[in-house]
Amino acid sequence: MDKVGTVEAKTQRSGLTLAAILDTALEMAAAEGLESLTIGEVAKRLGLSKSGVFSRVGSREALQKAVLEEYDRRFLQDVFMPAMREPRGLPRLNAIVRLWLQRTRDVEARIGCIYCAGAFEFDDREGPLRDLVMDGIQRWRSALKRTVIQAIDAGHLRADTDAEQLVFELDGLFIALMREARFMRDARAGDRTWSAYDRLIRSLLPQPDQSAARASRH
Length: 218
Hints:
Elements: H1 3-32, H2 39-46, H3 50-57, H4 60-83, H5 90-111, H6 114-121, H7 128-153, H8 163-183, H9 189-202, H10 210-217
Helix pairs in contact: 1-2, 1-4, 1-6, 2-3, 4-5, 4-7, 5-7, 5-8, 5-9, 6-7, 7-8, 8-9
């Protein structure tokens, strides 16, 4: 193998190793908390040396940060980006919730949700890791709020809809879903969540103007 081929092979192996490190660290963080992450434990689970893990991710703090960034990236890739192909307004909001449900069923219900777990893990602790978890949650909720506002502006939801309240309730639905799916092990948790969402949205749909309806009949 020539020099260029050797470098490419090493780069490919390094990329595969980093992906394996992040996969393992993500599962650890979701199941046991971000504070469970250590270079040594990740190395042990992967059968790597501590120096091998350190050379790819750096310090323990850098590993924790990389896990949160990777979780964000995967969440956006699975939920937000595909939903952007839908028209603005309620079609896009419906797509977000549907994809969010699908990801929760396929991923979070199996390994846990870093945002949910992190919010409880750091609810009474200050520090840079708490700030990173907070930033991720706030960015996601801001994106959700923009979608709700677009649905209001498009006339898909009532003009008096409280966007922040709706985001709060949607977030609460998925926190409840995580408990029901993981702790209660309710196989119907996803269906219950969609039913609750559908009922909530129907309560916010614009009502036809009754006077205009009466006028159109005469």
